[in-house]
Amino acid sequence: MSETALSQPQRNIVSRLWNDKETRSVIIQIIAFAAIFALFFYMIRNAVINLEAIGKDIDFAFLTQPASYDIGQTLIEYTSRSSHFTAMIVGIINTLLIAVFGIFLSTILGFTLGVLRLSKNWLTNKLAYVYIEYTRNVPVLLHILLIHGLIVHALPLPKNALNVGDAAFLTNRGFFLPSPQFEFLFWLVLGLFIIGIIFSLWFRSYAKKIQDSTGKYYPVFWISLGAIVGIPLIAYFILGSPIQWQIPELKGFNYKGGMVVRPEFIALWIALSCYTAAFIGEIVRAGITAVSWGQTEASSAFGINRSRTLSLVVIPQALRIIIPPLTSQYLNITKNSSLAIAIGYMDIVATIGGISLNQTGREMECMTIVLLLYLSFSLLISAFMNWYNKRIKLTER
Amino acid sequence: MNNENTSAMNASIKPDYTVGEHPDLPPPSNTVGTIAWVRENLLSSPANIIMTILSIYFLYKVLPPSLNWMFFDAAYVGEDRNACRAVANGACWAFISERFQLFTYGFYPIEHRWRVDLSFVLLVVAVIPILFDKTPYRKYGLIFAMVFPFIAGWLLTGGLGLAPVPTEKFGGFMLTLVVGITGIAFSLPLGILLALGRQSNLPIIKVFCVSFIEFIRGVPLITLLFVASTMLSYFLPPGTNFDLLLRVLIMVTLFSAGYMAEVIRGGLQAIPKGQFEASDAMGLKYWPSMRLIVLPQALKISIPGIVNTFIGLYKDTTLVIIIGLLDPLGIGRASLSDTKWTGLSNEVYLFVALFFFISCFGMSRYSLYLENKLQTEHRK
């Protein structure tokens, strides 16, 4: 026994340091840091040598040069003489556009699917199941190409377009819709709409305060709906419908006037929404089934009726489970919209990371911009999600 | 008089059971059988009836035309598109059967295709012992599965006595399997390491793992593939010519490792703190405690997530067409530009969709089986 105790200090210093937990962790971290640093240094050194060998530098000045390519769908002023920077902005707007529209449609479809999956009706339940399994197990790129193919091949030429009520025309060159022309009085309606939103936000907290102190219950949902939708709608008709619709007309081989939604946008929108809806449907179903049946029973034991049980007991608890994966599905839509490049919808990847990159040959700069843009979207959404999670977290002991 | 009568009647029909022990009567006829099932599941309430009618209407509208197009009105043989159209109005499957070899092997040289077949057979041999723990000689099977990726790599690319085949010739379902299985095999261990790093007490390791995971999860795979195809060569020593397929494999593996890490982190966080404390109390060091106590439990919880990541990775292999590799989708799109077969995109996409559906649905069923098998808690 004493022999081992004596020999302990004589063991070499390295093994002594290694066997101490604190020093060992410091040593491991120094080694890891050095290794990562060396790797980065090595890669950057290679990049410098390689760029020098072909006489390139890193320079973002190309962003101000004319892009000299056309973009089918733009929401802002853009011609082929605009700069690469403007092209990039168009790409960003197109990505955000598809993301917002996709999030909207997929949420509606997804919640419907989730409810159908919980339906007691065997047939509906199984139909929803088949849809979800088919959609989830086939790559999203395939959905996009399939729907794009259907739109381009199955819809007629502008000559014999699918006529929807003499106002909208569906063709394989895009959907031609009437475009609104806002008159002055319309802005009044818009003003009422915004006031309605502000009012219902205030009313919600007011009703909660009243309910907390007196127990009196106001139908917040219906009053808010009236304030946000009802009053502006009445005002709209009283003011004599202050929107003129410009209806597209067939001139030559194509429709003129009105607004056109490109087939690429529609294909991407439908495909991404249907694909993501299948995932959201499963999330919703899991969220609602996760709320234990005892909660519903307890609520009816209190004498709370069925619809209030749903809105006050089940849904708030289910939402706590549903929201985090739902946000990551929203993020997925945004990221999957980058597949637009396969069918020629001009988003971030197709503009700055695609045509601009090929024209200028500035891979480093373009890819850096694309990566940073997507990273900032993701970090923004995650930051929001963390904030929300903290807000709805159950306060425990 | 009356009394006598009843007792006489009672005596005449003598019960064949002892009093108080009447055998169970059959359930009322309207609560069992098909009719009861229909009443319960399709017609229980007005809303339910409406749903049933809507569903049947939907099926009536969708099912007959699709079936007609797919099977009854379809042409199965034919020289080209016009020959198909002459026979039938529906799908033209002749196209698929003519190009089937291309869809399977891509442009892999015909005289070497036995190597692809052999690799596939070996793949089945390697996978069975992993999937089912009752396989005989499982221990040797697992050892074989460990060396299988290297054997397959050697068989497919050649060298060491086999004629080399450049990876540009890879294509079709074979390419999907190569990318998918390599990604699956390497992303799980990498994901476990990243997850452990993220939960680690060492700040530098933790910061590195967190930033890697967040970066990977923050950008779409397609941009990473673009980085691999355009930018990566700048960061390598001058003159290195790095195979495009290998670059794609590395990117796909890193990408799904980032997602895997988050799934496994979820599992790690679900382990009660007492488990970590207990393994400390047993005097286990970090790695033994992870290997013997924490990871087996964490991985078991995360099985559904892990399999979902695998399925996602497998589906994402289709993105390689955007940087010019020819997976089945790429082969299909290339074939569509052949004037003989132009305009048959629906057939191609549905055929490829069927392939992906079978593989991915199979994986998700297996994950359910595994969950049930590993369930050790009491069922409700």
Q: Characteristics of this structure?
A:
heterodimer; A: 397 residues; alpha+beta; MetI-like fold; 2 domains; four-stranded antiparallel sheet; two-stranded antiparallel sheet; 13 helices; 8 strands; disordered N terminus; B: 380 residues; mainly alpha; 17 helices
Descriptive report:
The complex is a heterodimer of chains A (397) and B (380). Chain A has helices at residues 2-10, 13-19, 21-53, 84-117, 122-136, 140-154, 184-214, 220-238, 263-290, 293-301, 306-336, 348-360, 363-392, and strands at 162-164, 168-171, 174-177, 179-182, 243-246, 249-251, 254-256, 259-261. Chain A has 397 residues and is of the alpha+beta class. Chain A folds into 2 domains: 2-53, no CATH class; 84-178 and 247-391, MetI-like fold (Orthogonal Bundle). A 4-stranded antiparallel sheet of chain A has the order 1-2-3-8. The two termini of chain A are 49 Å apart. Chain B is mainly alpha-helical and 380 residues long. The model of chain B has no long low-confidence stretch (mean pLDDT 86). Chain B has 2 domains: 29-89; 96-108 and 165-374, MetI-like (MetI-like fold, Orthogonal Bundle), CATH 1.10.3720.10. In chain B, helix 9 packs across helix 12. The interface between A and B is large, with 55 and 57 residues.
> How does CATH name the architecture of the largest domain in chain A?
Orthogonal Bundle
Oligomer description = heterodimer
**Helix content, binned percent of chain A:** 55-70%
CATH class of the largest domain in chain B: Mainly Alpha
Q: How many structurally independent domains of chain B?
A: 2
Distance between the termini of chain B: 60 Å
Tally of contiguous helical segments of chain B: 17
The tally of structural domains of chain A comes to 2
Beginning-to-end CA distance, first to last residue of chain A: 49 Å
CATH architecture of the largest domain in chain B: Orthogonal Bundle
Strand runs of chain B, count: 0
Q: List low-confidence stretches of chain B.
A: none
Which class best fits the helix and strand makeup of chain B?
mainly alpha
**How do the helices and strands follow one another from N- to C-terminus of chain B?**
HHHHHHHHHHHHHHHHH
Overall outline of chain A? globular
Q: Give the helix tally of chain A.
A: 13
Query: Segments of chain A where pLDDT lies below 50 for 5+ residues?
Result: 1-6
CATH fold naming of the largest domain in chain B: MetI-like fold
CATH topology of the largest domain in chain A: MetI-like fold
Radius of gyration of chain B: 30 Å
